[in-house]
Amino acid sequence: MKRITPEQISGTNRHMIYMYIYRGRNNVPQQKIGYELKMSRPTVTNHLSAMEEEGLISRSTWDNQESGEWGRKPLVWSVEAECKIALGVEILKHAVKIAAVNLYGEVMKYSRFLTEYENTEDYYESVCSVVREFIKSLGLEARILGIGFALQGLVSEDGKEIIYGEILKCTGLKIDVFTRRLDYPCRFVHEPDGAALSELWVSPELKDAIYLSMSEHLGGALISGRKILNGQHRHSATFEHITACRNGELCYCGKKGCFETVCSKVALLRGEEPDEFFARVREGEAEASGRWQNFLKYLGKLIAHLHLVVDTKYILGGHLAPYFTEEDIAVLYEYGRKFTPFSEGEDYIQLSKMPSHNITVGAALPYIMSFLENVGRNSAQ
What we know:
Layout: H1 6-24, E1 28-29, H2 30-37, H3 41-53, E2 57-61, E3 75-79, E4 85-91, E5 95-101, E6 107-114, H4 121-138, E7 144-151, E8 154-155, E9 162-164, H5 176-179, E10 186-190, H6 191-202, E11 209-214, E12 218-224, E13 227-228, H7 260-263, H8 265-269, H9 274-282, H10 286-309, E14 313-317, H11 326-339, E15 349-351, H12 358-374
Parallel strand pairs: 4-7, 7-10, 11-14, 14-15
Antiparallel strand pairs: 1-3, 2-3, 4-5, 5-6, 8-9, 11-12, 12-13
């Protein structure tokens, strides 16, 4: 058997202490740490001092404890949430979004600028220049763990290549177009995967689900055991390319009638602003209401057919999710009963808990998650 070294034991203890404080969020009493983790006072004190010196945590005294609990004015600890941060960059056809995220997945700063995507060196230099300025404005260059670039394309397992990028015409794009210009680790993230990661982050109770991202384009993610399953060829959950109607509109994939052509933001709005469109829908304007009901019909059909294959929860996310009402969800259940033989309860469709900045934040989260998984296990972070 392989021996566990004293250094490994020490690293594990430090990791446990850090994560206990992290989960406690703020003002975790020092006495409680040793009691709950069953560690000696010297062990706890030594690790706290080391992590404080590294800037991972900070101490204070707490005056608001209940009388008699842990004595008077106990020493309490909190995680320095901005001691490490990550960036998410979402690249769209007509815009780029950037978010800086702290260790709790909270957005510290967000920016959006309009630019037309081009698969050229000039474009990548322009984007990287904006990212560098964004980083400079934070004044936290040394704290950045990495940068995730979310694109509308399938991504290789190592995050270094776009293996299918028909929307942006960027198949074969390598991550080095960014790493050559930015002094930080970088990786690609498939847009729906980023959205699903955000959902998992804000939903610790979520175990299994199918996530439907209704943004500029339709996308999906298959969540099993809190993991995103991409499949052998990295195209699991590409529900957007199932045929919705024969001889329908031409999809960017080259086939006709895909669900992408009837259940995406592009297909629904036809260039109209979402606030304006849904204002017309809620006012009962005939043309807009007809378009929306057609959208719900096909979305209900898609969910009903997928539900026959995977009997799990279905989460509606993406740019269109905030515009759904309870009545709209009820319509989806009606189509579920129409397209399937089962009369199930209305308990498997829900709206995303994180409809804002979900893709941009999700692109940053792999770096945050990796840091939290390993923090304290090595003497230097």
